[in-house]
Amino acid sequence: MKIVLRPLADIKPYEKNPRNNNTAVDAVAESIRRFGFRQPIVVDSDGVIVCGHTRWKAAQKLKIDKVPVHDATDLSPEQIRAYRIADNKAMLNRERGRSRRSGAKETPLSRIDNGGQAKRVMRFELTTFTLAT
Predict the structure, then answer these.
(1) Strand ranges of the sheet holding 66-71, from the earlier edge strand across to the other edge
(2) Nearest to 26 by CA among 4, 51, 59, 75
(3) By residue range, what is the domain housing residue 53?
(4) What pLDDT is stored for residue 101 in this prediction?
(5) CATH number, domain with residue 48
(6) Is residue 118 part of a domain?
(7) Section 97-116 average pLDDT
(8) Total structural domains within the chain
(9) What is the DSSP-derived secondary structure letter of residue 109?
């Protein structure tokens, strides 16, 4: 997996990001301040965030000029969509117990990236991955 430093200003948020987790930005910013970036922001071929919106917001708060980025240019638009859903589903599962206490708002996954209309987006299974060397 290739990771490059990219100007934060070149990275664009995904307009249909379903998570409203602004309450987590301070904690992520503190983690980045203390430990550095340990997980890159993943973007598509247009520089739009696939996963890492909270890290992006935290970097803005910390006024970081360049951040580690992985360009997921090898993924098709359908794979990008599935990856976004999988990433958000994993985060929602972890946050489910905290969301009621923190005030975070959740959007049902069935409404992600399809104009707000409830319908099955796609079925996928993640079984394994390999890192390119």
Answers:
(1) 4-7, 66-71, 41-43, 49-51
(2) 59
(3) 4-111
(4) 46
(5) 3.90.1530.10
(6) no
(7) 50
(8) 1
(9) G
